[in-house]
Design the sequence.
């Protein structure tokens, strides 16, 4: 977007900029974010869904379904990335082994700091 100085003003078609956090479709944005990460990580989840989860922030099924907790949309984007990358990496690694952690560090620097903020277990 361009906020260039003396630009013209057209009050008729003026649109209020949507703050990212207050988006109309936060769950869609979370999904989109996860899909972008899937491309980056070169993994291919079958389905990415966002739904209410009480005990976890995310999960990855052996069938390739990634589930993200709907209340993640209220969280810091870096925390979202941490959960998303964690779950997506499970499409390649089933455990939290050396490679898993190395890739977490490569893509989400400082992820260990978020680990404590995860609820319950870390599937
Ligand atoms: Zn895990």
Sequence:
């Amino acid at each position: 977007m361009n906020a260039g100085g003396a630009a013209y003003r057209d009050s008729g078609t003026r649109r209020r900029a949507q703050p990212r956090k207050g988006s109309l479709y936060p769950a869609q944005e979370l999904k989109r974010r996860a899909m972008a990460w899937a491309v980056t990580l070169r993994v291919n989840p079958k389905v990415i869904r966002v739904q209410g989860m009480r005990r976890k922030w995310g999960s990855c099924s052996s069938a390739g379904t990634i589930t993200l907790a709907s209340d993640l949309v209220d969280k810091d984007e870096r925390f979202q990335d941490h959960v998303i990358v964690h779950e997506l990496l499970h499409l390649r690694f089933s455990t939290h082994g050396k490679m898993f952690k190395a890739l977490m560090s490569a893509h989400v620097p400082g992820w260990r700091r978020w680990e404590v903020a995860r609820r319950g277990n870390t599937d």
Summary: The chain is about 35% helix and 10% strand. The chain has one domain: 26-115.
